Amino acid sequence: MQPAIPRRDGPATPSNGLVGRDDLLAQLRTAVDRALDGTGQVVVLSGEAGIGKTAAAAEAASHARDRGARVLWAACWQGEGVPGYWPWVQVARELLEPGTSGVLGRLLETGEPHGSGWHDTSPGAGRFQLFDELTSALLAAAEVRPVVLVLDDLQWADVSSALLLGFLARRLRTSRLLVIGTLRDDELERGGRLAAALAEIGSAGTVVPLAPLSDAEVGELVAATIGRDADPGLVEEIRARAGGNPFF
After folding, report:
1. Closest CA relative to residue 29, chosen from 70, 61, 71
2. Per-residue model confidence as pLDDT tens digits over 184-210
3. pLDDT-derived band of residue 117, with 50, 70 and 90 as boundaries?
4. If we measure between CA atoms, which residue out of 232, 156, 245 comes closest to residue 194?
5. What distance in Å separates the CA atoms of residue 230 and residue 22, rounded to the nearest whole number?
6. Quick one: which of 184, 175, 178, 185 has its CA closest to 61?
7. How many C-beta atoms lie closer than 10 Å to residue 125's C-beta?
8. pTM for the complete prediction?
C-alpha cells in the first residue's frame, strides 16, 4: 500500500510487481492505450485498505509515462482543516500557470474559488462555472499531450470534489484523458451524500473491485517474500489470518 502523499508523478512503481493482478493491470494498460488513441474514461479501483489499489494505479501511471503521457497525481486527505476541492487544488497547481484568472485562479491561489465554505453553499451557476472551467482546462491539456490523472483515496473526498469528478466523467469519451480513482468502499458512510456522488461516477465510468488473493496467489506472494516455496500449512495460516489482503 502506497502512502497518500501528493506528488507530481505518483508513487514509485513496486519493483517486485503485483501478485494476482495480471488481469487488472492488463485492463488498466488497455484503458491507458485507449485514452492515448482518443477514448478517455474514468476507472475507479475499489476495495479494502491494503488490497493493492494504489499500487495498481502506480503501475498504470508508469505505463502511461512510458507511452509519453503526462501523469498528474492527487490525493484526498482525512482530517480536520482540509479545504473543499482539495484533490482538485492539487490538480490545478500542476496544470495551471500562476496568474490564471477567474474562478480557477482563485482556486489555485487560495484553495477556495469564492471564499471559505463556497463549495457547500454556492448557487448552482457558480459551481457549474468551476466544474466547466477546470474540466475544459484538463481536456485542453490532453489535446496537447495525453493525460492520466490519478485521484487517490476518494473515500476522503468532499462531496463537491466527487460531483466535479462525475461532471468530468461525462466529457471524456472523445478525449485523451484517463482518470484513475482509488476508493476504500468499506469506509463510505451508508446512504451518505459522498456515497451517492461516487455512485454517480460509477454510472459514467467503470468501477473495478479488487478481490482478496486466492490461496495460490498468497503462496506465490509468500514465496516471493521469503525467496523459496512456502510450506502449505504456513500459506494456509497466512491466508486465514490476513484474509487474502497482500498488505496484511
Report:
1. 61
2. 988 876 668 888 888 888 777 899 999
3. very low
4. 156
5. 22
6. 178
7. 7
8. 0.83
**Full DSSP string of 188-239:** SPTT-HHHHHHHHHHHHSEEEEPPPPPHHHHHHHHHHHHTSPPPHHHHHHHH
Q: Which three cell numbers stand for residue 117?
A: 465554505
- Quick one: cell of 171? 466529457
Cell 506472494 locates to: 221
Task: From residue 117, give the alpha-carbon distance in Å to each of 85, 157, 158.
Answer: 11, 15, 12
99-116 b/e with 16+ CB inside 10 Å = b? ebeebbbbbbeebbbbee
Strand order of the sheet with strand 41-46? 70-75, 147-152, 177-183, 41-46, 206-209
Phi, psi of 150 (to 5 degrees): -105, 125
**Alpha-carbon torsion 218, 5, 14, 22, what sign?**
positive
Query: Is there a contact between 83 and 112 (Cβ–Cβ < 8 Å)?
Result: yes
Q: What's the farthest any 2 CA atoms get from each other in the chain?
A: 63
